[in-house]
Amino acid sequence: DVKVTQSSRYLVKRTGEKVFLECVQDMDHENMFWYRQDPGLGLRLIYFSYDVKMKEKGDIPEGYSVSREKKERFSLILESASTNQTSMYLCASRRTGTGFPYGYTFGSGTRLTVV
Amino acid sequence: DQQVKQNSPSLSVQEGRISILNCDYTNSMFDYFLWYKKYPAEGPTFLISISSIKDKNEDGRFTVFLNKSAKHLSLHIVPSQPGDSAVYFCAASAQGGKLIFGQGTELSVKP
Q1: CA–CA gap between residue A74 and residue A72 (Å, rounded)
Q2: Cβ B44–A106 below 8 Å, yes or no?
Q3: Strand-pair partners of A77
Q4: In the predicted model, is pLDDT for residue A97 greater than 70?
Q5: For residue B94, with 0-12 CB atoms within 10 Å meaning exposed, 13-18 middle and 19 or more buried, which class applies?
Q6: Beta partners for B92?
Q7: Are A101 and A93 contacting, i.e. CB atoms less than 8 angstroms apart?
Q8: Interchain CB contacts (distance < 8 Å): A and B
Q9: Closest residue to A109, CB basis, from B43, B89, B102
Q10: What per-residue confidence (pLDDT) applies to B98?
Q11: What would the pLDDT profile of A56-87 be if each residue is shown by its tens digit?
Q12: Which residues have CB under 8 Å from A97's CB, separation 6+?
C-alpha cells in the first residue's frame, strides 16, 4: 500500500525555535507539497516541489523554507517559529505523466503547537 | 482570489437522508475536480473525482455532479451514515497542474 509518512503526529515547540517537519513517500512520486490547515481557511499551499532539488513558493511561503535533496523526502523548515504558525501541517505527493490521476496522496498530518 | 469556494462551512443531516455538499469555482480552465474527506487528526483521503468531459460520476453512495455552465459541482451522499461525519474538501486542477482546494465543509450526520 502506498504511503506518505510524516515523522511526527504532534509537536510542541517554543517561539523562536527552528523547526523541521519531515515527509517521506515510498511511491516514487515526482511532485510533493506542504499545506497547512486552519479552521475556516481550508488547505493553504506553503511550498511545493515538482522534482528533486526543485521548489516553488505556494500561497503562504513567508516564514517557511523547504528542502528536497532526495526524491522521496520533502522537508518543511520553520526558520523561527511563531505562535501564528500553530497549525495542522499536511504533506502530499503525486505521480505525474499521462495515465496517472491528478489527485494527491496525503500524510496523516503533524499538529504543531508553538508556545 | 479564491478560485474554489465552499460557501457552507458546516452541514447537519439526519442519518439515512441525503447530504448535498456544494462547491463553486471561477477558473474556466479547470478540467478535473476531486472531493476529499478528512477526519480530525488524519490527512485527507481521496473520495471521488470527475473530469470536465462528464457531468456525473457515481461510486456507491457517493455521486458528484458537475455543471460547467454554472461553474458548480456538488457531492451527494445517499444514504448518509454517522461515519460520513467529516470535513469535505473540493479541489480543482487545470491541465494536470497543482490542486486548488476549497475551504471545506464540515458534515455532521446525526443518528
Answers
A1: 7
A2: yes
A3: A20, A65
A4: no
A5: middle
A6: B33, B100
A7: no
A8: 52
A9: B43
A10: 85
A11: 999 999 999 999 999 999 999 999 999 999 99
A12: none
